[in-house]
Amino acid sequence: MPSPRTEALLQPLGDLGSLFERLNVRLVLTLASVVMVALLVSGVALSQILPGYFLDEAERRAETAAISTAILIQSVAEQLDITNRAILRTPELRNTQLLQPRAQQAANSLAQGTVEIQYENGPIAAVAPPGPAVSDRLRQQGFAPDPQVPAHTIRAPIPDGLGGNMILLFTVRDVYTNRVATLQRVNGTLFGATLAALAVSLAVGIIAARRLTGPLARLRRVSGRFAAGELDVRAPQFGIVEVDDLGQQFNVMADRLSESLRLLEADRNRLREFVADVSHELRTPIAALRTFTELQRDGEVGESQRREFLDRSTQQINRLEWMSTNLLDLSRIDAGIFPMDVRPGDLREPVRAVVEAHSEQADAAGVSLALQVPAEPVMLRFDRERVVQLLSNLVGNAVKFTQRGGEVVVDLVDRGDEAVLEVRDSGPGIPEQDLPLVFDRFFRGTNVGEARASGSGLGLAIARSIVEMHGGTIGVSSLLGRGATFTVRLPRERAEGQ
Ligand code: ADP
Protein backbone atom coordinates (compact mmCIF):
# COMPACT_ATOMS: atom_id res chain seq x y z
CA MET A 1 0.00 0.00 0.00
CA PRO A 2 1.63 3.32 -0.97
CA SER A 3 1.67 5.95 1.75
CA PRO A 4 -0.42 9.09 1.17
CA ARG A 5 2.81 10.92 0.48
CA THR A 6 3.90 8.56 -2.27
CA GLU A 7 0.37 8.56 -3.57
CA ALA A 8 0.50 12.33 -3.84
CA LEU A 9 3.81 12.02 -5.64
CA LEU A 10 2.43 9.43 -8.00
CA GLN A 11 -0.65 11.53 -8.75
CA PRO A 12 0.87 13.66 -11.54
CA LEU A 13 2.31 10.51 -13.05
CA GLY A 14 -1.17 8.98 -13.02
CA ASP A 15 -2.55 12.05 -14.78
CA LEU A 16 0.25 11.82 -17.30
CA GLY A 17 -0.55 8.14 -17.79
CA SER A 18 -4.20 8.88 -18.49
CA LEU A 19 -3.09 11.67 -20.85
CA PHE A 20 -1.24 9.09 -22.95
CA GLU A 21 -4.35 6.92 -22.94
CA ARG A 22 -6.22 9.63 -24.82
CA LEU A 23 -6.76 8.83 -28.48
CA ASN A 24 -5.96 12.32 -29.77
CA VAL A 25 -2.70 12.53 -27.78
CA ARG A 26 -1.70 9.13 -29.13
CA LEU A 27 -2.53 10.15 -32.68
CA VAL A 28 -0.53 13.37 -32.46
CA LEU A 29 2.44 11.59 -30.90
CA THR A 30 2.31 8.82 -33.48
CA LEU A 31 2.27 11.26 -36.36
CA ALA A 32 5.05 13.36 -34.81
CA SER A 33 7.21 10.30 -34.16
CA VAL A 34 6.71 9.04 -37.72
CA VAL A 35 7.85 12.43 -39.05
CA MET A 36 10.77 12.47 -36.61
CA VAL A 37 11.89 8.99 -37.62
CA ALA A 38 11.67 9.92 -41.33
CA LEU A 39 13.73 13.06 -40.74
CA LEU A 40 16.22 11.21 -38.55
CA VAL A 41 16.74 8.54 -41.19
CA SER A 42 17.22 11.09 -43.97
CA GLY A 43 19.50 13.19 -41.70
CA VAL A 44 21.67 10.20 -40.85
CA ALA A 45 21.78 9.20 -44.52
CA LEU A 46 22.79 12.72 -45.57
CA SER A 47 25.44 13.01 -42.87
CA GLN A 48 26.87 9.67 -44.02
CA ILE A 49 26.83 10.46 -47.73
CA LEU A 50 27.59 14.18 -47.94
CA PRO A 51 31.08 14.37 -46.30
CA GLY A 52 32.35 11.49 -48.44
CA TYR A 53 30.94 13.15 -51.53
CA PHE A 54 32.68 16.46 -50.76
CA LEU A 55 35.99 14.72 -50.00
CA ASP A 56 35.81 12.76 -53.26
CA GLU A 57 35.10 15.97 -55.12
CA ALA A 58 38.08 17.77 -53.54
CA GLU A 59 40.35 14.80 -54.15
CA ARG A 60 39.40 14.71 -57.81
CA ARG A 61 40.05 18.44 -58.02
CA ALA A 62 43.49 17.98 -56.46
CA GLU A 63 44.28 15.21 -58.93
CA THR A 64 43.07 17.22 -61.91
CA ALA A 65 45.03 20.25 -60.69
CA ALA A 66 48.24 18.20 -60.35
CA ILE A 67 47.83 16.79 -63.87
CA SER A 68 46.98 20.22 -65.29
CA THR A 69 50.02 21.78 -63.59
CA ALA A 70 52.24 19.06 -65.08
CA ILE A 71 50.81 19.70 -68.57
CA LEU A 72 51.36 23.43 -68.03
CA ILE A 73 55.00 22.88 -67.10
CA GLN A 74 55.46 20.45 -70.01
CA SER A 75 54.25 23.05 -72.51
CA VAL A 76 56.38 25.74 -70.84
CA ALA A 77 59.45 23.47 -71.05
CA GLU A 78 58.88 22.79 -74.71
CA GLN A 79 58.97 26.50 -75.49
CA LEU A 80 62.09 27.35 -73.42
CA ASP A 81 65.25 28.67 -75.05
CA ILE A 82 68.54 26.95 -74.46
CA THR A 83 69.52 29.03 -71.41
CA ASN A 84 66.30 28.50 -69.62
CA ARG A 85 66.28 24.81 -70.40
CA ALA A 86 69.68 24.58 -68.78
CA ILE A 87 68.29 26.39 -65.78
CA LEU A 88 65.34 24.03 -65.67
CA ARG A 89 67.58 21.02 -65.75
CA THR A 90 69.64 22.26 -62.79
CA PRO A 91 67.82 21.78 -59.52
CA GLU A 92 70.45 23.63 -57.57
CA LEU A 93 69.44 26.84 -59.33
CA ARG A 94 66.03 26.48 -57.66
CA ASN A 95 64.31 27.71 -60.80
CA THR A 96 62.65 30.38 -58.81
CA GLN A 97 61.89 32.64 -61.70
CA LEU A 98 60.88 29.80 -63.98
CA LEU A 99 58.70 27.46 -61.96
CA GLN A 100 57.49 29.59 -59.04
CA PRO A 101 55.24 31.87 -61.15
CA ARG A 102 53.73 28.79 -62.89
CA ALA A 103 53.19 27.07 -59.57
CA GLN A 104 51.55 30.24 -58.30
CA GLN A 105 49.38 30.42 -61.39
CA ALA A 106 48.30 26.79 -60.96
CA ALA A 107 47.67 27.31 -57.23
CA ASN A 108 45.46 30.30 -57.93
CA SER A 109 43.42 29.07 -60.83
CA LEU A 110 43.72 25.29 -61.20
CA ALA A 111 44.16 23.86 -57.73
CA GLN A 112 42.72 26.41 -55.33
CA GLY A 113 45.23 24.84 -52.98
CA THR A 114 48.98 24.67 -52.43
CA VAL A 115 50.97 23.50 -55.50
CA GLU A 116 54.40 22.00 -54.96
CA ILE A 117 56.89 21.05 -57.71
CA GLN A 118 59.78 18.79 -56.79
CA TYR A 119 62.62 17.10 -58.69
CA GLU A 120 62.44 13.38 -58.29
CA ASN A 121 64.97 12.45 -55.63
CA GLY A 122 65.91 16.11 -55.51
CA PRO A 123 65.02 19.41 -53.93
CA ILE A 124 61.68 21.23 -54.03
CA ALA A 125 61.60 23.53 -57.03
CA ALA A 126 58.56 25.65 -56.18
CA VAL A 127 55.86 25.91 -53.49
CA ALA A 128 52.85 28.18 -53.93
CA PRO A 129 49.69 28.47 -51.86
CA PRO A 130 46.92 30.53 -53.46
CA GLY A 131 47.81 34.18 -53.47
CA PRO A 132 46.31 36.58 -50.90
CA ALA A 133 43.74 37.99 -53.31
CA VAL A 134 42.55 34.52 -54.32
CA SER A 135 42.56 33.14 -50.79
CA ASP A 136 40.66 36.21 -49.53
CA ARG A 137 38.05 35.74 -52.20
CA LEU A 138 37.80 32.01 -51.45
CA ARG A 139 37.49 32.63 -47.71
CA GLN A 140 34.76 35.15 -48.39
CA GLN A 141 32.89 32.47 -50.29
CA GLY A 142 33.19 30.13 -47.32
CA PHE A 143 36.17 28.14 -48.61
CA ALA A 144 39.09 27.19 -46.38
CA PRO A 145 42.14 24.88 -46.66
CA ASP A 146 40.77 21.43 -45.89
CA PRO A 147 43.26 19.25 -43.99
CA GLN A 148 41.09 16.18 -44.53
CA VAL A 149 41.60 16.18 -48.28
CA PRO A 150 44.71 14.02 -48.85
CA ALA A 151 47.62 15.54 -50.80
CA HIS A 152 47.75 14.27 -54.36
CA THR A 153 51.07 13.75 -56.15
CA ILE A 154 51.75 12.74 -59.73
CA ARG A 155 55.02 11.98 -61.44
CA ALA A 156 55.38 13.61 -64.85
CA PRO A 157 58.19 13.51 -67.46
CA ILE A 158 59.27 16.97 -68.58
CA PRO A 159 61.35 17.39 -71.77
CA ASP A 160 64.89 18.39 -70.73
CA GLY A 161 65.79 20.06 -74.06
CA LEU A 162 68.43 17.39 -74.75
CA GLY A 163 65.94 15.03 -76.30
CA GLY A 164 65.33 13.26 -73.00
CA ASN A 165 62.98 13.66 -70.04
CA MET A 166 63.48 14.45 -66.40
CA ILE A 167 60.91 13.48 -63.77
CA LEU A 168 59.18 16.15 -61.71
CA LEU A 169 56.69 15.47 -58.90
CA PHE A 170 53.57 17.68 -58.85
CA THR A 171 51.78 17.74 -55.54
CA VAL A 172 48.55 19.54 -54.74
CA ARG A 173 47.64 19.81 -51.02
CA ASP A 174 45.75 21.99 -48.60
CA VAL A 175 43.00 22.32 -51.17
CA TYR A 176 40.41 24.98 -50.36
CA THR A 177 36.95 23.49 -49.98
CA ASN A 178 33.61 24.69 -48.64
CA ARG A 179 32.95 21.18 -47.22
CA VAL A 180 32.77 22.25 -43.58
CA ALA A 181 30.67 25.35 -44.33
CA THR A 182 28.35 23.40 -46.61
CA LEU A 183 27.94 20.61 -44.07
CA GLN A 184 27.20 23.18 -41.40
CA ARG A 185 24.65 24.80 -43.67
CA VAL A 186 23.08 21.46 -44.52
CA ASN A 187 22.93 20.51 -40.83
CA GLY A 188 21.39 23.87 -39.98
CA THR A 189 18.84 23.50 -42.76
CA LEU A 190 18.07 19.95 -41.65
CA PHE A 191 17.61 21.11 -38.10
CA GLY A 192 15.29 23.92 -39.22
CA ALA A 193 13.39 21.52 -41.49
CA THR A 194 13.06 19.10 -38.58
CA LEU A 195 11.60 21.79 -36.37
CA ALA A 196 9.26 22.98 -39.15
CA ALA A 197 8.17 19.41 -39.98
CA LEU A 198 7.61 18.71 -36.31
CA ALA A 199 5.47 21.82 -35.96
CA VAL A 200 3.51 20.98 -39.12
CA SER A 201 3.05 17.35 -38.09
CA LEU A 202 1.87 18.44 -34.64
CA ALA A 203 -0.60 20.89 -36.19
CA VAL A 204 -1.82 18.32 -38.74
CA GLY A 205 -1.97 15.67 -36.01
CA ILE A 206 -4.01 17.91 -33.74
CA ILE A 207 -6.45 18.74 -36.57
CA ALA A 208 -6.75 15.08 -37.63
CA ALA A 209 -7.17 13.95 -34.03
CA ARG A 210 -9.85 16.59 -33.48
CA ARG A 211 -11.64 15.42 -36.61
CA LEU A 212 -11.62 11.89 -35.28
CA THR A 213 -12.14 12.42 -31.58
CA GLY A 214 -14.67 15.23 -32.07
CA PRO A 215 -17.34 12.81 -33.37
CA LEU A 216 -16.42 10.32 -30.64
CA ALA A 217 -16.86 13.03 -28.02
CA ARG A 218 -20.25 13.90 -29.54
CA LEU A 219 -21.20 10.25 -29.50
CA ARG A 220 -20.20 10.11 -25.85
CA ARG A 221 -22.38 13.15 -25.11
CA VAL A 222 -25.31 11.57 -26.97
CA SER A 223 -24.98 8.34 -24.98
CA GLY A 224 -24.63 10.38 -21.77
CA ARG A 225 -27.89 12.17 -22.53
CA PHE A 226 -29.52 8.84 -23.32
CA ALA A 227 -28.26 7.42 -20.03
CA ALA A 228 -29.65 10.48 -18.25
CA GLY A 229 -33.10 9.57 -19.53
CA GLU A 230 -33.44 11.42 -22.86
CA LEU A 231 -34.64 8.35 -24.69
CA ASP A 232 -35.25 10.26 -27.95
CA VAL A 233 -31.63 11.31 -28.62
CA ARG A 234 -29.90 9.51 -31.46
CA ALA A 235 -26.37 9.65 -32.87
CA PRO A 236 -26.06 11.81 -36.04
CA GLN A 237 -24.01 10.90 -39.14
CA PHE A 238 -20.40 12.13 -39.04
CA GLY A 239 -19.11 11.03 -42.43
CA ILE A 240 -16.49 8.70 -40.88
CA VAL A 241 -17.44 5.13 -41.72
CA GLU A 242 -16.21 3.50 -38.51
CA VAL A 243 -17.70 6.16 -36.24
CA ASP A 244 -20.96 6.08 -38.20
CA ASP A 245 -21.09 2.29 -37.79
CA LEU A 246 -20.67 2.78 -34.06
CA GLY A 247 -23.36 5.48 -34.05
CA GLN A 248 -25.71 3.26 -35.99
CA GLN A 249 -25.17 0.42 -33.55
CA PHE A 250 -25.83 2.85 -30.73
CA ASN A 251 -29.05 3.97 -32.42
CA VAL A 252 -30.22 0.38 -32.90
CA MET A 253 -29.46 -0.32 -29.24
CA ALA A 254 -31.21 2.89 -28.18
CA ASP A 255 -34.27 2.02 -30.29
CA ARG A 256 -34.51 -1.43 -28.75
CA LEU A 257 -33.90 -0.17 -25.26
CA SER A 258 -36.49 2.59 -25.50
CA GLU A 259 -38.98 0.15 -27.02
CA SER A 260 -38.36 -2.28 -24.13
CA LEU A 261 -38.70 0.54 -21.63
CA ARG A 262 -41.88 1.67 -23.30
CA LEU A 263 -43.30 -1.86 -23.15
CA LEU A 264 -42.22 -2.23 -19.53
CA GLU A 265 -43.84 1.08 -18.70
CA ALA A 266 -47.03 0.07 -20.53
CA ASP A 267 -46.97 -3.28 -18.73
CA ARG A 268 -46.52 -1.59 -15.38
CA ASN A 269 -49.39 0.79 -16.09
CA ARG A 270 -51.59 -2.08 -17.24
CA LEU A 271 -50.76 -4.03 -14.11
CA ARG A 272 -51.52 -1.01 -11.94
CA GLU A 273 -54.85 -0.49 -13.70
CA PHE A 274 -55.57 -4.19 -13.47
CA VAL A 275 -55.01 -4.29 -9.70
CA ALA A 276 -57.13 -1.15 -9.27
CA ASP A 277 -59.89 -2.67 -11.44
CA VAL A 278 -59.79 -5.97 -9.57
CA SER A 279 -60.15 -4.33 -6.18
CA HIS A 280 -62.91 -2.11 -7.53
CA GLU A 281 -64.74 -5.11 -9.02
CA LEU A 282 -64.43 -7.08 -5.80
CA ARG A 283 -65.81 -4.22 -3.75
CA THR A 284 -69.28 -4.20 -5.41
CA PRO A 285 -70.34 -7.83 -4.66
CA ILE A 286 -68.73 -7.70 -1.23
CA ALA A 287 -70.66 -4.51 -0.38
CA ALA A 288 -73.92 -6.10 -1.63
CA LEU A 289 -73.29 -9.25 0.44
CA ARG A 290 -72.56 -7.13 3.52
CA THR A 291 -75.80 -5.16 3.04
CA PHE A 292 -77.93 -8.31 2.62
CA THR A 293 -76.30 -9.97 5.63
CA GLU A 294 -76.66 -6.90 7.86
CA LEU A 295 -80.29 -6.37 6.83
CA GLN A 296 -81.07 -9.96 7.74
CA ARG A 297 -79.20 -9.75 11.03
CA ASP A 298 -80.50 -6.39 12.24
CA GLY A 299 -83.76 -5.66 10.44
CA GLU A 300 -87.28 -6.96 10.55
CA VAL A 301 -87.18 -9.06 7.42
CA GLY A 302 -90.14 -11.02 6.10
CA GLU A 303 -89.83 -14.52 4.65
CA SER A 304 -90.22 -13.41 1.00
CA GLN A 305 -87.67 -10.62 1.48
CA ARG A 306 -85.29 -13.06 3.16
CA ARG A 307 -85.59 -15.36 0.14
CA GLU A 308 -84.91 -12.49 -2.22
CA PHE A 309 -81.81 -11.46 -0.21
CA LEU A 310 -80.58 -15.06 -0.24
CA ASP A 311 -81.15 -15.27 -4.03
CA ARG A 312 -79.28 -12.05 -4.59
CA SER A 313 -76.50 -13.15 -2.26
CA THR A 314 -76.18 -16.37 -4.26
CA GLN A 315 -75.97 -14.27 -7.45
CA GLN A 316 -73.17 -12.17 -5.94
CA ILE A 317 -71.32 -15.25 -4.69
CA ASN A 318 -71.64 -16.79 -8.19
CA ARG A 319 -70.26 -13.55 -9.61
CA LEU A 320 -67.32 -13.60 -7.18
CA GLU A 321 -66.62 -17.22 -8.04
CA TRP A 322 -66.82 -16.50 -11.79
CA MET A 323 -64.58 -13.53 -11.37
CA SER A 324 -61.97 -15.38 -9.33
CA THR A 325 -61.89 -18.21 -11.90
CA ASN A 326 -61.50 -15.71 -14.73
CA LEU A 327 -58.82 -13.77 -12.86
CA LEU A 328 -56.91 -16.97 -12.30
CA ASP A 329 -57.14 -17.76 -16.02
CA LEU A 330 -56.01 -14.27 -16.97
CA SER A 331 -53.01 -14.36 -14.62
CA ARG A 332 -52.04 -17.73 -16.13
CA ILE A 333 -52.37 -16.30 -19.64
CA ASP A 334 -50.18 -13.33 -18.62
CA ALA A 335 -47.58 -15.61 -17.07
CA GLY A 336 -47.62 -17.82 -20.19
CA ILE A 337 -48.62 -20.89 -18.17
CA PHE A 338 -52.16 -21.27 -19.46
CA PRO A 339 -52.26 -25.04 -19.99
CA MET A 340 -53.41 -26.04 -23.47
CA ASP A 341 -54.35 -29.53 -24.46
CA VAL A 342 -54.60 -29.40 -28.25
CA ARG A 343 -55.87 -32.51 -30.02
CA PRO A 344 -57.52 -33.22 -33.35
CA GLY A 345 -61.30 -33.41 -33.16
CA ASP A 346 -64.66 -32.45 -34.62
CA LEU A 347 -65.37 -28.83 -33.76
CA ARG A 348 -69.13 -29.45 -34.03
CA GLU A 349 -69.04 -31.44 -30.79
CA PRO A 350 -68.03 -28.66 -28.31
CA VAL A 351 -70.27 -26.20 -30.20
CA ARG A 352 -73.27 -28.52 -29.75
CA ALA A 353 -72.38 -29.08 -26.10
CA VAL A 354 -72.23 -25.35 -25.33
CA VAL A 355 -75.54 -24.62 -27.07
CA GLU A 356 -77.08 -27.54 -25.20
CA ALA A 357 -75.72 -26.25 -21.90
CA HIS A 358 -77.22 -22.79 -22.47
CA SER A 359 -80.64 -23.91 -23.74
CA GLU A 360 -82.10 -23.96 -20.26
CA GLN A 361 -80.86 -20.42 -19.54
CA ALA A 362 -82.23 -19.30 -22.95
CA ASP A 363 -85.61 -20.86 -22.30
CA ALA A 364 -85.79 -19.14 -18.93
CA ALA A 365 -84.95 -15.82 -20.56
CA GLY A 366 -87.51 -16.39 -23.33
CA VAL A 367 -84.80 -16.27 -26.01
CA SER A 368 -84.66 -18.77 -28.86
CA LEU A 369 -81.25 -20.42 -29.23
CA ALA A 370 -80.55 -21.95 -32.66
CA LEU A 371 -77.57 -23.96 -33.88
CA GLN A 372 -76.36 -24.34 -37.47
CA VAL A 373 -73.49 -26.76 -38.09
CA PRO A 374 -72.32 -28.49 -41.28
CA ALA A 375 -73.40 -32.06 -41.93
CA GLU A 376 -69.76 -33.18 -42.25
CA PRO A 377 -67.40 -33.19 -39.28
CA VAL A 378 -65.29 -30.05 -38.98
CA MET A 379 -61.93 -31.59 -38.17
CA LEU A 380 -59.45 -29.30 -36.48
CA ARG A 381 -56.81 -29.37 -33.78
CA PHE A 382 -58.08 -27.52 -30.70
CA ASP A 383 -58.21 -27.55 -26.92
CA ARG A 384 -61.78 -28.71 -26.23
CA GLU A 385 -62.02 -27.28 -22.72
CA ARG A 386 -60.80 -23.84 -23.86
CA VAL A 387 -63.10 -23.82 -26.89
CA VAL A 388 -66.02 -24.61 -24.58
CA GLN A 389 -64.92 -21.74 -22.30
CA LEU A 390 -64.68 -19.37 -25.28
CA LEU A 391 -68.06 -20.32 -26.69
CA SER A 392 -69.71 -20.25 -23.28
CA ASN A 393 -68.56 -16.66 -22.85
CA LEU A 394 -69.95 -15.64 -26.27
CA VAL A 395 -73.23 -17.57 -26.06
CA GLY A 396 -73.65 -16.60 -22.38
CA ASN A 397 -73.32 -12.92 -23.27
CA ALA A 398 -75.68 -13.23 -26.26
CA VAL A 399 -78.39 -14.87 -24.15
CA LYS A 400 -77.79 -12.49 -21.26
CA PHE A 401 -78.06 -9.33 -23.34
CA THR A 402 -80.95 -10.38 -25.61
CA GLN A 403 -84.40 -9.40 -24.40
CA ARG A 404 -87.33 -11.76 -24.13
CA GLY A 405 -88.61 -12.81 -27.56
CA GLY A 406 -85.26 -12.30 -29.22
CA GLU A 407 -83.03 -14.91 -30.78
CA VAL A 408 -79.49 -16.14 -30.68
CA VAL A 409 -77.93 -18.13 -33.54
CA VAL A 410 -74.69 -20.10 -33.30
CA ASP A 411 -73.36 -20.81 -36.76
CA LEU A 412 -70.36 -23.01 -37.62
CA VAL A 413 -69.04 -22.99 -41.20
CA ASP A 414 -66.11 -24.95 -42.65
CA ARG A 415 -64.21 -22.71 -45.09
CA GLY A 416 -61.53 -25.26 -45.91
CA ASP A 417 -58.51 -23.40 -44.59
CA GLU A 418 -60.40 -22.20 -41.53
CA ALA A 419 -63.45 -22.88 -39.42
CA VAL A 420 -65.66 -19.82 -38.90
CA LEU A 421 -67.88 -19.62 -35.88
CA GLU A 422 -70.50 -16.90 -35.54
CA VAL A 423 -72.60 -16.03 -32.52
CA ARG A 424 -75.40 -13.66 -33.61
CA ASP A 425 -78.02 -12.15 -31.38
CA SER A 426 -80.95 -9.77 -31.79
CA GLY A 427 -80.11 -7.92 -28.58
CA PRO A 428 -79.47 -4.22 -28.04
CA GLY A 429 -76.16 -4.28 -29.88
CA ILE A 430 -72.99 -2.45 -28.96
CA PRO A 431 -72.44 1.31 -29.51
CA GLU A 432 -69.83 2.00 -32.20
CA GLN A 433 -67.44 3.70 -29.81
CA ASP A 434 -67.45 0.60 -27.57
CA LEU A 435 -66.64 -1.87 -30.37
CA PRO A 436 -62.81 -1.51 -30.16
CA LEU A 437 -62.97 -1.83 -26.36
CA VAL A 438 -65.17 -4.86 -25.73
CA PHE A 439 -62.19 -7.25 -25.63
CA ASP A 440 -60.36 -5.13 -23.01
CA ARG A 441 -60.21 -6.36 -19.46
CA PHE A 442 -62.95 -5.06 -17.17
CA PHE A 443 -64.71 -3.28 -20.00
CA ARG A 444 -68.40 -3.51 -19.41
CA GLY A 445 -69.83 -1.01 -21.85
CA THR A 446 -70.60 2.67 -21.49
CA ASN A 447 -74.29 2.28 -20.60
CA VAL A 448 -74.22 -0.33 -17.94
CA GLY A 449 -77.65 -1.86 -17.77
CA GLU A 450 -78.71 -4.53 -15.34
CA ALA A 451 -77.38 -7.36 -17.48
CA ARG A 452 -74.07 -5.56 -17.95
CA ALA A 453 -73.75 -4.74 -14.27
CA SER A 454 -73.89 -8.43 -13.46
CA GLY A 455 -70.78 -9.17 -15.57
CA SER A 456 -67.11 -8.78 -14.72
CA GLY A 457 -65.82 -7.49 -18.05
CA LEU A 458 -63.34 -10.37 -18.24
CA GLY A 459 -65.20 -12.89 -20.43
CA LEU A 460 -64.32 -11.40 -23.83
CA ALA A 461 -60.70 -10.71 -22.78
CA ILE A 462 -60.31 -14.41 -21.98
CA ALA A 463 -62.15 -15.36 -25.19
CA ARG A 464 -59.67 -13.32 -27.25
CA SER A 465 -56.67 -14.91 -25.48
CA ILE A 466 -58.04 -18.40 -26.15
CA VAL A 467 -58.61 -17.62 -29.84
CA GLU A 468 -55.12 -16.15 -30.18
CA MET A 469 -53.60 -19.21 -28.56
CA HIS A 470 -55.22 -21.22 -31.33
CA GLY A 471 -53.67 -18.86 -33.89
CA GLY A 472 -57.07 -17.46 -34.80
CA THR A 473 -58.84 -14.10 -34.72
CA ILE A 474 -61.96 -12.80 -33.07
CA GLY A 475 -64.01 -9.76 -34.15
CA VAL A 476 -67.29 -8.12 -33.48
CA SER A 477 -69.75 -6.19 -35.63
CA SER A 478 -72.90 -4.58 -34.40
CA LEU A 479 -75.68 -2.16 -35.22
CA LEU A 480 -77.13 -0.42 -32.21
CA GLY A 481 -80.62 -1.83 -31.53
CA ARG A 482 -80.16 -4.64 -34.06
CA GLY A 483 -77.94 -7.04 -32.15
CA ALA A 484 -74.30 -8.05 -32.23
CA THR A 485 -72.30 -10.66 -34.14
CA PHE A 486 -69.09 -12.16 -32.77
CA THR A 487 -66.98 -13.98 -35.38
CA VAL A 488 -64.21 -16.41 -34.48
CA ARG A 489 -61.85 -17.74 -37.15
CA LEU A 490 -59.73 -20.76 -36.28
CA PRO A 491 -57.12 -21.63 -38.95
CA ARG A 492 -56.81 -25.22 -40.00
CA GLU A 493 -53.14 -25.30 -41.20
CA ARG A 494 -51.73 -23.56 -38.16
CA ALA A 495 -53.79 -25.72 -35.84
CA GLU A 496 -52.86 -28.87 -37.76
CA GLY A 497 -49.21 -27.94 -37.87
CA GLN A 498 -49.02 -27.67 -34.09
P1 ADP B 1 -69.12 -9.41 -18.98
O1 ADP B 1 -68.67 -10.49 -18.11
O2 ADP B 1 -69.33 -8.11 -18.30
O3 ADP B 1 -70.13 -9.77 -19.96
P2 ADP B 1 -67.49 -9.42 -21.31
O4 ADP B 1 -66.01 -9.22 -21.47
O5 ADP B 1 -68.00 -10.73 -21.71
O6 ADP B 1 -67.83 -9.05 -19.83
O7 ADP B 1 -68.19 -8.30 -22.16
C1 ADP B 1 -67.75 -6.99 -22.06
C2 ADP B 1 -68.85 -6.02 -22.45
O8 ADP B 1 -69.13 -6.14 -23.84
C3 ADP B 1 -70.15 -6.26 -21.79
O9 ADP B 1 -70.23 -5.65 -20.53
C4 ADP B 1 -71.10 -5.59 -22.78
O10 ADP B 1 -71.13 -4.20 -22.56
C5 ADP B 1 -70.49 -5.87 -24.11
N1 ADP B 1 -71.07 -7.08 -24.75
C6 ADP B 1 -70.53 -8.29 -24.83
N2 ADP B 1 -71.32 -9.14 -25.52
C7 ADP B 1 -72.41 -8.42 -25.92
C8 ADP B 1 -73.58 -8.72 -26.67
N3 ADP B 1 -73.80 -9.94 -27.20
N4 ADP B 1 -74.47 -7.72 -26.91
C9 ADP B 1 -74.25 -6.48 -26.40
N5 ADP B 1 -73.16 -6.12 -25.66
C10 ADP B 1 -72.23 -7.09 -25.42
What labels describe this entry?
single chain; 498 residues; alpha+beta; 5-stranded mixed sheet; 4-stranded antiparallel sheet; 13 helices; 61% helix; disordered N terminus; disordered C terminus; binds adenosine-5'-diphosphate
The secondary-structure class comes to: alpha+beta
End-to-end separation = 66 Å
Ions, cofactors and other ligands present here are: adenosine-5'-diphosphate
What do the pLDDT scores average to?
Answer: 87
| Number of beta-strand segments | 13
The largest pleated sheet is described as: 5 strands, mixed
Report Rg.
58 Å
In quaternary terms, these chains amount to: single chain
Helix content: 55-70%
Beta fraction: 15-25%
Order of helices and strands: HHHHEEHEEEEHHHEHEEHEEHHEEH
Q: Strands of the biggest beta sheet: in what spatial order?
A: 8-10-11-13-12
Q: Uncertain runs with pLDDT below 50, 5 residues or more? A: 1-10, 494-498
Give the count of helical stretches.
13
Approximate shape: rod-shaped
List the helices and strands and how they pair.
Blueprint: H1 4-20, H2 23-78, H3 82-89, H4 96-111, E1 114-119, E2 124-128, H5 132-140, E3 144-145, E4 152-159, E5 165-173, E6 176-177, H6 179-227, H7 241-298, H8 303-335, E7 343-346, H9 348-365, E8 368-372, E9 379-382, H10 384-401, E10 407-414, E11 418-425, H11 450-453, H12 459-469, E12 473-479, E13 483-491, H13 492-497
Parallel strand pairs: 8-10
Antiparallel strand pairs: 1-2, 1-5, 3-6, 4-5, 7-9, 10-11, 11-13, 12-13
Helix pairs in contact: 2-4, 2-6, 6-7, 7-8, 8-12, 9-10, 10-12
The structure holds adenosine-5'-diphosphate.
Adenosine-5'-diphosphate is lined by residues 393, 397-398, 401, 425, 427-428, 430, 438, 443-445, 452, 455-461, 484.
